[in-house]
């Protein structure tokens, strides 16, 4: 069973710095593919989930929140087209926040932050471990994204929708040869600013 791993708050502002490609190489026996610098990985041969998570935490040079989801859950959520078929409006970025396990807390949707006036962050859907939303490019947006933890009742980490599309594309490829080295894919600058 394939897994997708999201690390929270890595390689941001000089804190929790590490080389994701090196981590993928250390975990090569699990067929780990690094998706950019934001601490996002596809694990194509995870085997026992608990054993893989233990190996991952042992390989990390620091302690951080680790969000692990089944690839099939992400694929299903993506296939549901939470944003519909229309492209995003100019100046609006689509995002997905992930938490470590499904929460029983289900906010009334949509949620707009701030609640009065022009919204900067808007949550549109919650499915499995995923929060789907949009944000406007604004200097105050990062603060409102930080409120998503309270909204779902658990720590979350956020990725750009383009990164999720890259993961889905990778999961749709035929399984790689075990001897092939783990590869890296570029992550948008937006992810590097918003991941928490």
The CATH architecture term of the largest domain is 2-Layer Sandwich
Strand order across the biggest sheet? 6-7-8-5-9
- From the N-terminal CA to the C-terminal CA, the straight-line distance is 27 Å
The number of distinct structural domains comes to 2
Number of DSSP helical runs: 7
Cα Rg: 16 Å
Helix share, percent: 25-40%
Description:
The strands form 2 sheets. A 5-stranded antiparallel beta sheet has the order 6-7-8-5-9. A 4-stranded antiparallel beta sheet has the order 2-3-1-4, sandwiched between helices. The protein is an alpha+beta fold and 196 residues long. It has 7 helices and 9 strands, in the order βαββαβαββββααβαα. The chain folds into 2 domains: 3-74 and 164-188, Alpha-Beta Plaits, CATH 3.30.70; 86-160.
Give the SSE layout:
Elements: E1 3-7, H1 20-26, E2 32-34, E3 40-43, H2 49-59, E4 66-70, H3 71-79, E5 92-99, E6 111-113, E7 121-127, E8 130-136, H4 141-145, H5 148-152, E9 156-160, H6 161-171, H7 189-194
Antiparallel strand pairs: 1-3, 1-4, 2-3, 5-8, 5-9, 6-7, 7-8
